[in-house]
Amino acid sequence: VQLQASGGGLVQAGGSLRLSCAASGRTFNMYRMGWFRQAPGKVREFVAAINWNGGNTYYADSVKGRFTISRDNAKNTLYLQMNSLKPEDTAVYFCAADRNLGVPTSVLQNYDYWGQGTLVTVSS
């Protein structure tokens, strides 16, 4: 599967953005999906994950209650709605896919496919 992330940009603190990740192929619904982010000088970290049908989600504590992950299997698209953004949310955001019908995972090494990343900048 090939992944293309989009939707990043510059937003003021307290604002919102919605990221999208378009997937190629006909088997999108056989993948659990995740969002990760990497700030300058820091390691890539888990943000949110979702199982194959969207019925199970999992969030990092730092974004819980502010971000929502969802997917539309008919459109082969993954989303990340980000509300109440903070300057510390500034990072390049990556979507990732793991061909697995199990529960969502935060483990970076479980994901085999990665998008190119989209930059989110939150100004104070």
Plain-language structure description:
This protein is mainly β. It has strands at 3-6, 9-12, 17-23, 31-38, 45-50, 57-59, 67-72, 77-82, 91-99, 113-114, 118-123. It starts with a strand and ends with a strand. Helices cover 0% and strands 49% of the residues. The chain has no helices and eleven strands. β7 (67-72) and β8 form a beta hairpin. The strands form two sheets. Strands 2, 4, 5, 6, 9, 10 and 11 form a seven-stranded mixed beta sheet that branches.
Would you spell out the secondary-structure blueprint of this structure?
Elements: E1 3-6, E2 9-12, E3 17-23, E4 31-38, E5 45-50, E6 57-59, E7 67-72, E8 77-82, E9 91-99, E10 113-114, E11 118-123
List its traits.
124 residues; mainly beta; 0% helix; globular
Give the structure's gist in a few sentences:
Helices cover 0% and strands 49% of the residues. It is mostly beta strands and 124 residues long.
Alpha-carbon distance between the two ends: 37 Å
The ordered string of helix (H) and strand (E) elements is: EEEEEEEEEEE
Catalogue the unreliable spans. Answer: none
Number of helices: 0
How large is the share of residues in beta strands?
over 45%
Mean pLDDT across every amino acid position:
97
The beta-strand count equals 11
User: Structural class, from secondary structure content?
Assistant: mainly beta
**Rg over CA atoms:** 13 Å
Largest sheet composition: 7 strands, mixed
Helix content: under 10%
Shape: globular
